[in-house]
Write a structure and sequence with these properties.
alpha+beta, 1 helix, 4 strands, 38% strand
Length: 82
């Protein structure tokens, strides 16, 4: 079993030139966030926005699955085609 877990935050720009980010856990995408300028009416928690319950569920699951492992946090850039 792997002794470390890697969280990676990738940052890039949307087609509008606005910032977007993606969170990976051991290369699997868990969350992404970007501008809602195209459809601001969709800015509803738990629909297009990550809410506190999403984060809480993620943390609980993460801690249970990776208990005792060393945590590595990395930051990088999103590829143009991601």
């Amino acid at each position: 079993m792997k002794e470390t877990v890697t969280l990676t935050v990738l940052t890039g720009e949307s087609w509008e030139g606005l910032r977007r980010e993606t969170l990976l856990v051991d290369v699997k995408e868990y969350f992404s966030a970007g501008p809602l300028s195209e459809c601001p009416e969709d800015a509803i928690l738990e629909r297009d926005l990550i809410g506190p319950s999403d984060i809480t569920e993620f943390l609980e699951s993460f801690l249970q699955k990776h208990n005792g492992k060393k945590l590595v946090i990395e930051y990088g850039d999103l590829d143009e085609d991601e």
